[in-house]
Each structure stands twice: as C-alpha cells, then as structure tokens.
Amino acid sequence: MIKYLPNDNDGRFPEETLVLVRHPLRDDQNDDRDSWPWLPGTVLEQCGADE
C-alpha cells in the first residue's frame, strides 16, 4: 500500500482548481452514474496519484 502525504501533490490536480464533477442530485440516482449531472466543484487536495 502506498501512502500519500499532503506534500505529495504531483501538480496534476492543483488545490483550488475549478473542475466539473459528476454527482447524483437524488438518492434514487445512485445506481445510474450516466444520469448524474456535471456540477461545478473545487479541488481541495490531492489524495493520491490520479485522485
């Protein structure tokens, strides 16, 4: 298991970057990710490679 520390951000996802993320608006949408709308979000911190 690889452990990532807060300073391990490789710069691919800089903190405070504006992004679009898919997220369900209702509980009944949990099974159908294709129906999830794209919503604005912000990168808070990178947890690991490609995350």
What does this structure look like?
This protein is mainly β and 51 residues long. It has one domain. The protein is 0% helix and 20% strand. The chain is built from no helices and two strands. The protein has a two-stranded antiparallel sheet with strand order 1-2. It is elongated, with a radius of gyration of 14 Å.
Keyphrases for this structure?
mainly beta; two-stranded antiparallel sheet; 51 residues; single chain
Helix content: under 10%
Question: What is the N-to-C succession of helices and strands?
Answer: EE
Spans of 5+ residues with little confidence (pLDDT < 50)?
A: none
Going by helix content, strand content and strand pairing, the class is: mainly beta
Question: How much beta, percentage-wise?
Answer: 15-25%
Largest sheet, strands/sense/barrel: 2 strands, antiparallel
Brief summary:
The chain has 51 residues and is mainly beta. The protein has strands spanning 18-22, 38-42.
Layout: helices, strands, pairs:
Blueprint: E1 18-22, E2 38-42
Antiparallel strand pairs: 1-2
